[in-house]
Amino acid sequence: MFRDRDRLSAGDLAEGCFSPMWGPRESGLAGWCEPVHSNGMEFSAVLFDFDGVIVDTEWEIYQAWLRTFQAHGHELPLDIYTRCIGSDFTTWSPKTHLEELTGVAFDWHDLDGQRQLEIMRELDSAGPMVGVVDWLQNLNVQEIPCAVVSSSSHGWVDGWLEKLDLTRYFETTVCRGDAPRIKPAPDLYLEASRRLALAPEDCLVIEDSQNGLLAASAAGMPTWAVPNRVTANLDFSAATRVLESLAKV
Question: What is the full DSSP assignment across 118-170?
Answer without folding.
Answer: HHHHHTTT--BPTTHHHHHHHHHHTT--EEEE-SS-HHHHHHHHHHTT-GGG-
